[in-house]
């Protein structure tokens, strides 16, 4: 059966994101997303589906194909909603979203720029941050686990992003995907001296593993980790292959109080796609 799908393709820090406007049964999301993400279709790193929310104050309900939470997809949807409001340059709009992977409403502030939108997104607070030393591949590995309700990020400080380090991260992500009940596993390789971040995102339900060029949720987790480590407020820029994402983490009384990311999003395509399911 051939489906006709209305979509928007967005560019939040080169983390190419497809937003599906047409309504489809939830059980078809995974198959549709896999087809749309492929090289011979629209081609992107992730797919979200726009649904209506039952809450009056919410502009839209964003459901990611794997049930995960995604900060960059929030930016993409907020930018798209703002684009339909006819904002002039430097005008701003407050947008509230309901998003898969979190029980919290997501607050977005969007500012119209010349050919893109500058977005600030209030991110979910991790449930727990902890340090572990695990025996992996014959040696001890220090990791920092940032736990959320339905997904987990692992921060690993490294000196370089070479092939061996990346391959170890990929194997670890697969292993954790089997052993942990999570919609998403993120391995965040971080170089403290240069503030560089290499985010690997694995979604078990889709069996997709991507070295993302820019990861909003990973940037938020990095900020949460840095604030936890410092036991104080952190404002940092995570340099990633697709650009830089800003994170601000407020820490007070031995607790993370708020977590925000800031970045840009452009709308690069809009139209119809045809997929066979």
TrEMBL record:
Pfam families: CntK_N. Gene3D superfamilies: Diaminopimelate Epimerase, Chain A, domain 1 (3.10.310.10). InterPro entries: CntK-like. This is Diaminopimelate epimerase.
């Amino acid at each position: 059966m051939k489906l006709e799908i209305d979509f928007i393709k967005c560019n939040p820090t080169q983390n190419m994101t497809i937003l599906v406007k047409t309504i489809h049964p939830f059980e078809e999301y995974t198959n549709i997303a896999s087809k749309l993400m492929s090289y011979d279709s629209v081609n992107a790193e992730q797919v979200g589906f726009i649904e209506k929310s039952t809450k009056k104050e919410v502009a839209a309900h964003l459901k990611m194909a794997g049930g995960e939470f995604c900060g960059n997809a929030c930016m993409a949807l907020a930018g798209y909603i703002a684009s339909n409001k006819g904002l002039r340059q430097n005008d701003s709009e407050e947008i509230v979203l309901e998003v898969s992977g979190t029980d919290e409403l997501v607050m977005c502030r969007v500012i119209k720029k010349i050919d893109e939108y500058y977005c600030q997104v209030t991110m979910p607070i991790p449930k727990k941050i902890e340090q572990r030393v695990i025996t992996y591949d014959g040696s001890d590995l220090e990791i920092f686990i940032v736990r959320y309700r339905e997904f987990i990020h692992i921060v690993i400080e490294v000196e370089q992003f070479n092939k061996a380090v990346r391959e170890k991260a990929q194997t670890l992500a697969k292993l954790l995907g089997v052993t942990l009940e999570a919609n998403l596993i993120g391995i965040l390789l971080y170089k403290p001296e240069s503030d560089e971040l290499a985010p690997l995102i694995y979604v078990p339900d889709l069996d997709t593993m991507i070295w993302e060029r820019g990861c909003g949720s990973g940037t938020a987790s990095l900020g949460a980790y840095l604030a936890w480590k410092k036991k104080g407020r952190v404002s940092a820029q995570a340099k990633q292959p697709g650009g830089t994402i800003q994170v601000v983490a407020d820490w007070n009384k031995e607790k993370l109080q708020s977590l925000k990311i800031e970045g840009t999003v452009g709308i690069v395509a809009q139209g119809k796609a045809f997929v066979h399911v």
